[in-house]
Design a protein that fits this description.
There is one protein chain. The chain is an alpha+beta fold and 426 residues long. 49% of the residues lie in helices and 18% in strands. A hairpin with a 2-residue loop joins β1 and β2. α16 crosses α17. The longest helix is centred in the C-terminal third of the chain and has 23 residues, at 350-372. It starts with 15 loop residues before the first helix and ends with a helix. The mean pLDDT is 95. It binds (R)-mevalonate (MEV). (R)-mevalonate (MEV) binds at residues 83, 264-265, 267-268, 271, 368-369, 372, 377.
Length: 426
């Protein structure tokens, strides 16, 4: 893999089937994978086994982001997303980041948090002491259900009692189980462990337990990506690179201080991360919940990123967020397109997948705030939107770009106008 570059100049101009051939060659895909990519992904039969009351499937475009260099390794990034310009923008940002040596990433061990709610507490301190005094036995109980994860080096690591003396339903003790889920997202493993632990906790504390469920605020399972972009990479016709770097720093500061802006800023980050989650069959709602709750961890919702001009005048960027993603189990193994996407990514572990996703989030954010701080977001969006409008108006393949260009030039991106252009009313 080390000898392959994810710089694929002109990839976007190739016809779809050629792109599939290029990626197949790059990622050593077989003919079955190619068939999957070319439209034979999830069958109705398989879909019927995955959820209830199935009627069929719902397809999304699957694209490939190029130019990603993460810890010295090249990756092609599969992204399932309906929004135009997400894939192009992230590829473009990754190219600028590549010029500064690419992304440097790290991840914690894949430690999920599970929660047990304890109620009817006669004495909070006695309950807490009982849990702390029996920690070793409790960890053993938590480990008894999933020997596979334990044998792989994962399993229960810690038990942490968290008292809430004053709640609307009286004193409450929340017991956290920290559980290393290895390469699984781990929802099933940790929920099973919690259900076996709860009766033991109730017995030891002489209290009653209610909910037993993982927490999506997976702050023990985070991924970090960092990059430095040489200022000259950011130069445009209208601005010097140093000016753009400063504008990006200002854009980030906006999202640090103002939750209204932070919500949109972080939404842009998740445009990229969700797309990789969906492509790889991961639970994007879990990752979304983790990201947004983590963004509010200091009591105020804020940007997940830091961008600032460094001492050399270059642009430094960093992101850290919870990343509860897996590469075994669930849709990742069942959905044929997710399996092929995982082959393209070729990650070796869940933490590696988490790091790549953090890099995608950082690049997606750079793309957005770089555009917002300079030309504005609409220019690029409109060019792509115009293609969709041209298609909606019935433009044949050969005329889509022509019609789209004219719509953009006239700044009238409407289906009616596209139809007029197609009728020869130019
Ligand atoms: C649009 O999907 C995402 C952006 O709004 C993100 C941002 O504003 O940073 C462009």
């Amino acid at each position: 893999m080390g000898d392959k570059s994810s710089r694929l100049p002109g990839f976007y101009k190739r016809p779809l089937t050629e792109r599939v051939d290029i990626v197949a060659e790059w990622a050593n895909l077989n003919d079955d994978d190619k068939t999957v990519l070319l439209g034979q992904g999830l069958s109705n039969e398989l879909a019927d086994k995955m959820i209830e009351n199935t009627l069929g499937t719902f397809a999304l475009p699957l694209g490939i982001a190029v130019n990603f260099l993460v810890n010295g390794r090249d990756y092609l990034i599969p992204m399932a997303v309906e929004e135009p310009s997400v894939v192009a923008a992230v590829s473009n940002a990754a190219k600028k980041i590549r010029a500064g040596g690419g992304f440097h990433t790290s991840a914690t061990n894949p430690v999920m948090i599970g929660q047990i709610q304890v109620l009817d507490i006669p004495d909070m301190d006695v309950a807490i002491n009982a849990i702390n005094a029996n920690k070793a036995d409790l960890l053993e109980t938590a480990n008894c259900c999933d020997k596979v994860i334990v044998n792989l080096g994962g399993g229960a690591l810690d038990i942490v009692p968290r008292p809430f003396p004053d709640t609307p339903v009286g004193p409450m003790l929340v017991v956290h189980l920290h559980f290393d889920t290895r390469d699984a997202m781990g929802a099933n493993a940790i929920n099973t462990a919690l259900e076996s632990l709860a009766p033991e906790i109730a017995r030891l504390t002489n209290c009653r337990t209610n909910l037993r469920i993982l927490s999506n605020l997976a702050d023990q399972r985070t991924a970090t990506a960092r990059c430095t972009i040489p200022a000259d990479q950011l130069a445009t016709e209208d601005y010097s690179g140093q000016e753009v770097a400063k504008l990006i720093e200002e854009a980030n500061a906006f999202a640090v201080v103002d939750p209204y802006r932070a919500a949109t800023h972080n939404k842009g980050i998740m445009n990229g991360i969700d797309a990789v989650c969906i492509a790889t069959g991961n639970d994007w709602r879990a990752v979304e919940a983790g990201a947004h709750s983590f963004a509010a961890k200091d009591g105020r919702y804020q940007a997940l990123t830091d961008w600032h001009v460094d001492d050399n005048g270059d642009l430094y960027g960093e992101i850290t967020l919870p990343m509860a993603v897996g590469m075994v189990g669930g849709a990742t193994k069942v959905h044929p397109t997710a399996r092929t996407a995982m082959k393209i990514l070729a990650v070796q572990s869940a933490p590696e997948l988490a790091q790549v996703m953090a890099a995608v989030g950082l690049a997606q954010n750079l793309a957005a705030i770089n555009a917002l701080a300079t030309v504005g977001i609409q220019k690029g969006h409109m060019a792509l939107h115009a293609r969709q409008v041209a298609m909606a108006a019935g433009a044949p393949e050969a005329l889509i770009q022509f019609v789209a260009d004219q719509l953009v030039a006239e700044r009238r991106i409407h289906v009616d106008r596209a139809k007029e252009i197609l009728k020869g009313n130019r």
